[in-house]
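User: Can you predict the 3D structure of 5-formyltetrahydrofolate cyclo-ligase? Sequence below.
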Amino acid sequence: MGAIDCYPNSKLKLQSMFLHRKSTNLIFKAKEVALVAHPHPHIMPSPTIRSSAANLTRTMAAMNKDGIGVDPHELDAIFEQKRSLRSKVRKALKNMDPILRSQEDNAIQNIVVESSWFKASKSLCAYVSSPALLEVGTPRIISEVLSSSAKERKKLYVPRVEDRNSNMKMLMISSVKDLIEKSMNILEPALVDSDGNQREDGALLSLFAFLFLLLNWRSYPSKAANYLEVPGAVMQASDPVDLFIVPGLAFDKSGSRLGRSGGYYDLFLKNYLELTKKKRWKQPLLVALSYSVQIIEDGGIPITPFDIPMDALVSPAGFIPISGADLRRCE
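Assistant: Sure. Here are the predicted structure tokens for 5-formyltetrahydrofolate cyclo-ligase:
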């Protein structure tokens, strides 16, 4: 026999199929309600979704840790400044000499892999660089972690951005063969490994969380919001992550970071940092990689309370610590 029939009674089988279909439909509807604020950065959402995402993002950005609101007009000005700065930095990156880019890629990666904080890390999250996004290259960093000598003592998690209306997840990989090509030739981990096993880690919200969210969104908005940001849904790793290697469009030496407007890293890091507090794990070291043209003078990057600051910056000129206390996290 090729398989065991768990439903010898045809009536029970039909009932099970009906319930499964209903649950699947509820999950998809819950996704539309719960995750609309974080559209895929490479797929243009509809005007309705785009408007909803902007409104919710601004609502989140308007609240600081104490829950004090920020003037919406001030936020509008900040978002406009961010758009303007992104345009300038993208232009500078496109005009960057290819030879200089390659030299800076090598210099930055050499600094990372030779650093004490990288060597001391037992598990880390690192992005897989994309030429289409003009990001600082990370192939040597990825290779170093996945090498036979480092493989025994390090875990590597890399980001996967789901379809429109999904959050970013971090999935563990053990080989570059675990990566698949997605839109814009961006490499991301498949949801299952070569043996068909689900990868450790960034799980979507559970079925029950989705159902609760769908059924109780209007009646219990605060509880539904808690399900949205449940830290356990961000990362299911059994051990804490020591190091995050983070991309971005612009940085300054005070730790400010300008992303690509999707908000994926800010939201993921916010939830993960909350998880570390609840589990009493040590805080990870957040290190950004930057070409020389991406470094802005201090105070030149407009920020909101929702933006997560970096602990350190690596540029071709060297390692720039932002907090000495943060460096001791990986020692």
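Confidence is low (pLDDT under 50) at residues 1-68, 202-213, 220-234. The CA atoms of residues 58 and 307 lie 12 Å apart.
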